[in-house]
Design brief:
Layout: E1 15-18, H1 25-30, E2 33-34, E3 42-43, H2 48-58, H3 65-75, H4 77-102, H5 109-121, E4 127-131, E5 134-140, H6 145-162, E6 169-171, E7 180-182, H7 195-218
Antiparallel strand pairs: 1-5, 2-3, 4-5, 6-7
Length: 222
């Protein structure tokens, strides 16, 4: 994410409270660009408002926490635009890293440097606070509240990388889809992001190929 160490100086009014971060939150963020194998992938993050809306729906912050970031973006359009570009760059770096992990391949060092730099510039997990029947992280706001809002994605990615051997990170076998997910099947053999979409498409293609093969053979006696 763009910016320097001065972003840590001061805060925008109190601490941010972050609930337990789902291990696959970062994969959900990566999947905001879908159908990556197609000539024209489907982009859901067109603006910084889309990014903040996605984070708000992830429900890892206390209610209303994203409002401050949205107001800051309106008042600081140039910085918000740079942060948005960096957020998309981070997303693509995470896709590269986790795609490589899913295929048991080496990842691009540049992707890892992009992620590492963003993680280093973000707020750190230092203070755990008790809530009603649970605990949460409390982080000091920085001068860039959009970057603060992306913090849970960074934490999720770091935790998933540390546990990559035990987590079953998969990439959808549909070459047009390439959705990333955690395989939580008992047999550890899940291949599709969703059996009802990509899985059924693959079954239909196989069925068509089997049905077409005898017809081609009958029309070509050799």
């Amino acid at each position: 994410m763009a910016g320097g160490s001065s972003d840590r100086d001061g805060n925008g009014g109190g601490a941010l409270v972050i609930s337990a971060v789902p291990p696959d939150l970062c994969l959900g963020y990566v999947n905001t660009l879908s159908w990556r194998g197609r000539r024209a992938p489907a982009e859901t993050l067109q603006t910084i408002s889309d990014v903040l809306g996605w984070i708000e729906r992830a429900a890892v912050f206390s209610p209303g926490s994203i409002d401050h970031a949205a107001a800051w973006a309106q008042d600081n359009e140039a910085r918000a635009a740079r942060t948005f570009a960096a957020a998309i760059e981070l997303r693509e770096a995470l896709f590269g890293i986790f795609s490589a992990i899913s295929a048991v391949e080496a990842f691009d060092r540049r992707d890892f440097l992009i992620f590492s730099a963003a993680l280093a510039r973000g707020p750190q997990r230092c203070h755990l606070v008790p809530m009603q029947r649970r605990f949460a992280w409390s982080i000091a706001r920085t001068r860039n509240p959009i970057r603060d809002a992306i913090t849970p994605v960074l934490w999720s990615a770091a935790d998933l990388m540390l546990g990559a051997a035990s987590h079953r990170i998969r990439r959808c076998a549909n070459e047009e889809c390439l959705w990333l997910f955690l395989d939580q099947s008992k047999t550890n053999t899940r291949r599709w992001c969703d059996m009802g979409s990509c899985g059924n498409r693959a079954k239909s293609r196989r069925h068509y190929a089997r049905a077409a093969s005898p017809r081609r053979s009958a029309g070509n006696p050799g």
